[in-house]
User: What shape does this take?
Amino acid sequence: MDLAQAPGGQTVEGDFLRASAVSLGADHPTVAAALTPEQAVDANPAYARAAGQRPLLKQLAGMLPARRYALRTEQTYVTWCHRFLLFVGAQDGAGAADLAALGKADVERLLAHLAVDRNVSASTQNQALNALVFLFRHVLERPLDEMAFSRAAAAAAAGGTGQG
Assistant: This one.
């Protein structure tokens, strides 16, 4: 069936549709799927302030597709690692995190900050934790040990009271 010959197809003005179209951002899946991981990091304006962290973020972004992570998971992991580096840099007062000095205590501080100060959900906290575990295990090649940190209130939301 030739849709251009249909009555509705003849009334649509293609120039109007093209002119009113909105450009998709670099983080949109349609556009991001065509970019290399390094291009995706460079194209995201959120990472412009973090020029010193870009090599690490690019390395992280390059490792995720090789391990067959979903595009949105890749984007989320890079974003959480970027937030972590900004958090640690702001906490230390230096502005930029020293990668060699980063460790379990820094991750615990961020996770506690998310739960206590930012009041995020348990699933958001787990997402950040998974991103940081990947960063430390696969990019920095320093796996994190067992951690102790303030958990978001998942038990209360699930109906559990924590009392026996």
About this structure: The radius of gyration is 21 Å. The chain has nine helices and no strands.
